[in-house]
Every structure is written in C-alpha cells, then in structure tokens.
Amino acid sequence: MSQLPTFQFERELAALGYKAVVGVDEVGCGALAGPVVAGAVVLPPTFRFAGLRDSKLLTALARERLSEEIKERSRGFAVGEASILEIASLGLRAATLLAMRRALEKIKEIDFVLIDAWQIPGLDLPQKGIIRGDRTVKSIAAASIVAKVYRDNLMNELAKEYSDYGFEVHKGYATKKHLAAIKEKGPCPIHRTGWKPFRPNIFDFLNKE
Asked: Coiled-coil regions in this chain (predicted)?
C-alpha cells in the first residue's frame, strides 16, 4: 500500500508561526501537447477526508470528487498556466516556474510555500522543495489534484477542436496511439514541436509493426 500524505510539514511550520502554508504542484511537464499547469492550495489544519493522495494514484472520478471538495473546504486555491508558446520560448523549466508563480499570485494569504520537488528562484516568500511531496504532504497532494483535474478538463475541450489525436484519452502524453496519430497527421497547433519526439526518426519503431 502506498504511503498516504500527512500534515507533518504543515504542523511543523504552524508551530514556527507560519499559518498560511500553501502546497504547489505541476502537471503536464511530460506531455507532448497542451500547457503546463500548476496548482496551489492552502488547506485548513483540520482538513480531513478519505482518499487524499497524489493525483496520479487516483481514478478520474475520484480526482473530480476530491477537487470539488478541496475547492469548497480549502482556505484558498488557484491554478496557473504556461502556454505552448511560453514553453517554446522560455523552455519547460522556466515555463513551469512561471505557471507556479501565476498560481501563487492568486492566493491572497501566504506565509510559506511547499513545492513538489522544485524551488522557485527569486520568490519573495519562504519555501521548501520536497522530493515526492505529492505523495507525502497533504497540501501538495491537494494541489496536484486541483491542477490535474483542471488540465484534464482543458485537454478534453481541446480534443473537440483537434479531434484526430485522442487528447481526451491521453491528455497529450506520449502514448503509442498518440505517437501514431502524430506520425499519420503531423503535429497540430497545441503540440510542443520543439521536443525530441517531433524530430526525424523518432517514429521509426512504428514502421516495424
């Protein structure tokens, strides 16, 4: 059984006087299409309900339910995006940090920032990057759920506009069917065409079928 996230970090920070601790996580970094999205959530210290964990360990239905509950019961939540053009011009890391900053800017009260794996250079707030934070820290797990549901819904809408690629199924990630669709149709405007999978010969393995 996987480890469940706890309030350990939030409690330790509260004991030091930090009352508004925001968890931050990103989704979409590894995708071939669509924006990168960051979630930011401030949970109340009494926040309790079953099932809160890293969004990747949940079913789509469970994520939807938990996202709504997080939004209703949190002290604050927000999402931030970085577009395809920003990813292309800034690079993935800088674009992801930009999405995180945009999410944080929408939260009214922040004393401390807990981030899954990352740290945000130049952030004018105390912060800590926690490896596997989405699996161990409740506020980061909550942020991962809010961000994942937001981005999945966005990709579902984009799938209606670009119906040849199956974005509603794989959400822009590099599944075999997605790569096959790119090989057949070529990239569409929401693909990150500067990435390695769009370079020559990356689809050679498909020719062996």
From this structure: none
Instruction: State the Cα–Cα distance between residues 201 and 105, nearest whole angstrom.
Output: 42
The gap from C-alpha 92 to its chain's centroid, in whole angstroms, comes to 13
Q: Chain-centre distance of CA 152, in angstroms?
A: 10
pLDDT tens digits for 93-140?
999 999 999 999 999 999 999 999 999 999 999 999 999 999 999 999
Domains detected in the chain? 8-160 (3.30.420.10), 162-208 (no CATH)
Amino acid at 79: V
Locate 8 and state its tokens: 């350990």
Judge whether 204 is annotated as a binding position: no
Residue with tokens 């075999």: 176
Q: Using CA atoms, how far apart are residues 78 and 76, in angstroms rounded to an integer?
A: 7
26 is in an annotated binding site: yes
The residues of the chain scoring below 70 in pLDDT are: 1-2, 196-197, 199-209
116 carries a ligand binding annotation: yes
